[in-house]
Amino acid sequence: MLVRVCSLSDLEDKKPKKFSLNNIEVVVVKVGDRVFVMDAYCPHKGGNMEYGDVNGYRIKCHLHGYEYNMETGELVYNPYGKSDGWYFSPNLKIYKVEVKGKDIFVEV
Predict the structure, then answer these.
(1) Terminal alpha carbon distance of the chain
(2) pLDDT confidence bin for 71, thresholds 50/70/90
(3) Which residues have CB under 8 Å from 19's CB, separation 6+?
(4) What pLDDT, in 10s, does the model give residues 32-68?
């Protein structure tokens, strides 16, 4: 189901913003003319991605520094260099985005 999230004018470039859609919390990020929508919480330990740092098409969780590709959700940087136990992180869930006029929609 396609759901309206916000308007392009609600977003600042490279500044993540959290929204709630049908009991699903997502973070929306605009980078230039591209828009990305992802789960609102880091898959590593639940950090709020609204406070993440955006660099290019990557977002870095403010809690532990894990970085994810906003196009694919793939974990691209683990600051600890370990992947077992506490250090493990699955990929970040990314939602399909459609921009219609000045409105942003996601598939949920």
Answers:
(1) 5
(2) very high
(3) 5, 6, 25, 26, 27, 28
(4) 999 999 999 999 999 999 999 999 999 999 999 999 9
Counting beta carbons within 10 angstroms of the beta carbon of residue 86, is it exposed (0 to 12), middle (13 to 18) or buried (19 or more)? exposed
Asked if residues 74 and 81 have their Cβ atoms less than 8 Å apart, the reply is: no
In percent, the amount of the chain with pLDDT more than 70 equals 100
Contact 30, 57 (CB under 8 A): no
Tell me which amino acid residue 75 is: L
Residue type at 94 in one-letter notation: I
3-state secondary structure of 41: strand
Q: Residue 11's pLDDT is what?
A: 98
- Whether 75 and 40 have beta carbons less than 8 Å apart is answered as no
Q: E-assigned strands of the chain?
A: 2-7, 17-21, 24-31, 34-39, 53-55, 58-60, 67-69, 75-77, 94-95, 97-100, 103-107
